[in-house]
Amino acid sequence: MRRIENIDAHSLSIDQFAGLRNQGLPEKTKITTTVKMLYEKALALFREMATPKAVVAEVSLEEFMDIYRGEGANDVPSVVEIIAPKARAVVLFALTSGQEVSNEIKRLLDEKDVALAYMLDIVASEGTEKAAEELTQRCVELCKKTGKFFDGDAVLRYSPGYCGWHVSGQKKLLSFLHANEIGITLTESFLMSPEKSISGAMIAGERKIHFFKNNFAFCKSCTHKSCRIRIRDLEGKNARD
Ligand code: SF4
Question: 131 FRET partner, CA 20 to 30 A, in 4, 158, 200, 225?
Fold first, then answer.
């Protein structure tokens, strides 16, 4: 069933400076007082202006595979088409932190406050990711209630634009979810607006279904290999259970 989820931006535990680290700042680099103050200011702006909201819908495997095929541009084989058939549940989602944050970033740039604009951009990306984590946790709770999540299971998110799911897949996914009702639209190049938005499928099942070798043709050009981190997390204590 399709539903809207609201998330309180103040409830999100956004790690101090995690955004900076994710931008490649080495762990040992000392963060100056000026940068700390800028970060705090950006964090306050995000909490004041962000209105994280998502539309979610659990779908059958057949429905999902039809949506997943999208515009017919996915790589074959791809990660999701191998994992999804082994899932206990597939929940589609589209989440946005709202337009106001993007407007503020633009306003700061127009006023040449580049440092704060840059910092707000980093914090908003991190905050949106935290909102997606909260949504994933809600998906776990829902799957538990409906008997589709057991000890040792995990829910992971997969998104168009990654790991063989072509970015044009956004079109069918967002159309199915009626994501425009929460303000998400697509550009001609299938990018979401507002910019601080995430969409995809939350796939629930035995933890091992999310383990795979990264030897797909498209992996050759992947610079981040983030699947290895996710799999390592699943193997360790950070797994969702
Ligand atoms: S190596 Fe990169 S492209 Fe390949 S599965 Fe992992 S994250 Fe996806």
Answer: 225
